[in-house]
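Exercise 3.2. Students should predict the tertiary structure of the chain below and write it as structure tokens, then compare their answer with the key that follows.

Predict this chain's 3D structure.
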Amino acid sequence: MAGTITQQEFFDEQKKLSDMMNQIKDLEADIARYNESQGVKRGQLTESEKTQIYHYYKTGNYTQTQLSQMFGVSQAAISGVLKKFG
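Answer key:
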């Protein structure tokens, strides 16, 4: 039957997905550590950053929490940016 996969193939794909998600989490942590090491203190997002946040979120590849970590602001700040674009 076309489009069917074995149980082993399914588990292999699940493992690949899990590994990729862990890599993303590691990269997010690296970004946060780098920002902290550089003394980045966030307050206001620039207009350019707000536009980037909107576009990143609309790809469906990033959650508001992930974006908040990437840009060093609260999830509520990300939500506010998205509402202004919405």
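Discussion points: The chain has four helices and no strands. The chain has a mean pLDDT of 88.
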